[in-house]
Design brief:
Number of helices: 9
Order of helices and strands: HEHEHEHEHEHEEEEHHHEE
Number of strands: 11
Bound molecules: calcium ion
CATH topology of the largest domain: Rossmann fold
CATH class of the largest domain: Alpha Beta
Radius of gyration: 19 Å
Strand content: 15-25%
CATH architecture of the largest domain: 3-Layer(aba) Sandwich
Number of domains: 2
Shape: elongated
Distance between the termini: 44 Å
Structural class: alpha/beta
């Protein structure tokens, strides 16, 4: 049975301190089930999309296969430990921001992690609120900021405000509506399938209700006009390319 996806309310998006303007995608690398589950829940509540892996090999595969805005990396991991994961990520030239999260609290571990290219360091046990604050701080740094205005000449979308503009009208989108429209506007003229869109909006282990994408598209069309997103029957959805 598919669970209803957790609604992300406008109220939550407007919550000030914990606001996430763009649907950021986080890779959580953590082998402790309880810590992992708690962090996943907290991140989703703060409107991040989260993929969770529990060993170093899966982490490297995931970082290769997907584009993430940030990784949370536990140091004590099976297969390749966190230090090795970080080293390999940096050797491959990845600039993915990494926050090392670990139970080890020795000064040496801390310095090691930072030397290997971690962007920040958290020692367990930590307060989720502090983790969220550090994530926001890392994401605010130059190079990891929100992307510029997206537009196909008809609709434009502002990642800083989650506002969509069309014909002089402005509509505020929820985090998931924004993530969906962002996926389409990144490639105007390209048809994105249901699974393309789901992958953009939800984390791997998040269950998605079968009509979740239709539901979001319906909501976006009500805000910015029925012709804003075109359905290509049996294939997917698209926005028109600028003419
Ligand atoms: Ca561990």
């Amino acid at each position: 049975m598919m669970a209803r996806p957790e609604p992300v309310s406008d109220a939550k998006i407007d919550a000030g301190e914990d606001t996430v303007r763009k649907q950021m995608r986080v890779l959580l690398i953590e082998d402790d089930r309880m810590v992992g589950a708690a962090v996943v829940q907290a991140l989703r509540d703060a409107a991040y999309a989260v993929d969770w892996v529990a060993d170093g090999a899966s982490a490297l595969e995931a970082a290769e296969a997907e584009t993430y805005d940030l990784a949370l990396l536990d140091l004590g991991l099976p297969v390749h430990d966190g230090r090795e994961v970080l080293q390999r990520l940096r050797q491959n030239g990845r600039t993915l921001p990494v926050i090392v999260v670990t139970a080890r609290d020795g000064v040496d571990d801390r310095i090691d992690g930072l030397d290997l290219g971690a962007d920040d360091y958290m020692v367990k046990p930590f307060e989720i609120r502090e983790l969220l604050a550090r994530i926001r701080a890392v994401l605010r740094r130059p190079g990891s900021g929100a992307p510029p205005l997206l537009s196909n000449g008809i609709i434009s979308l502002d990642p800083a405000t989650h506002e969509a503009h069309r014909d002089g009208e402005t509509s505020r989108l929820t985090a998931r509506e924004f993530a969906l429209l962002q996926a389409l506007l990144t490639r105007p003229g390209a048809i994105l399938s249901r699974s393309d869109l789901e992958r953009h909006i939800y984390g791997w282990n998040e269950e998605v209700e079968s009509n979740a994408i239709e539901f979001l598209i319906h909501a976006i069309r009500r805000k910015i006009g029925p012709s804003a997103i075109r359905n290509v029957r049996g294939v997917g959805w698209m926005v028109d390319r600028a003419s």
